[in-house]
Amino acid sequence: MTAGILVAGSLLAPQGLAGTTASLDADLKEDRHPSRTKMVQAAPTEFTVSDVVGQAGQTIALGIRPQSVGSPEDLFAITGLPPEVKLSSGSPQDDIWLVRRKELTSLAILAPEAFSRRFQIAVTRVRTNEKPPLTLTASVTISAKPAGSGVFTSAGQPRPRAAYERSAGENALFDKARERFKTGDIAGARAIFEVLALKGDPDAAIAIGETYDPIVLGQLYVKGLQPDEAKAVAWYRKADELGDQRARTRLNALNQN
């Protein structure tokens, strides 16, 4: 990729430097004459970025918010990522990640558990036929995952399974939630599972954890649904407290993912 120079928020290609330099010199000369007034109109904001703080080993959402300006296929270049860090979408090109506008909202950072660092990224909307490049920056702080966090071993006495028996109506609800989950109605499934889990149903606690589990959701191929590892861990821990022996297996799988 050809290097460029960032001037007033825009990445300028080398072939345009001569004309740009001349233009800047003219502007500077004009500023020395108070009698001459320039009208500067700010370009509309095409996207916004915000600083990010997260924990390694988890999915960390990037704070990039595209506005209603521009095509969903507009290409964005993200630079400044350390080699150990990956993005959930897009394609890496040497030290640059290329992402389309439609992928920005769900874009997330993936870092190994031992990773701990603060760095700055630059997000550039690549030049189009109608508009010059536009670059914004953000700070990213990732802390290492504490040793042993979320890890459950098979050693020690397992918790006794909670003595919870579903009624016939609750069995029907549980089966309905399972069917919704399989057909992609994740929100509907969660609503039912959560009611049962809060009553002390271990199976429901496991089931709602699965609706957030990145491993499980990755096998379903549900488009547009974002996993939440922290919530999955919380519900699996709830299931473990209720004595479901599957919970520790799920937690260890997440820890190794």
Automatic annotation (TrEMBL):
Alphabetized SUPFAM superfamilies for the sequence? HCP-like (SSF81901)
Query: What name does UniProt use for this protein?
Result: Sel1 repeat family protein
Q: Which organism is it from?
A: Rhodomicrobium udaipurense
Q: Which Gene3D superfamilies match?
A: Tetratricopeptide repeat domain
Source superkingdom: Bacteria
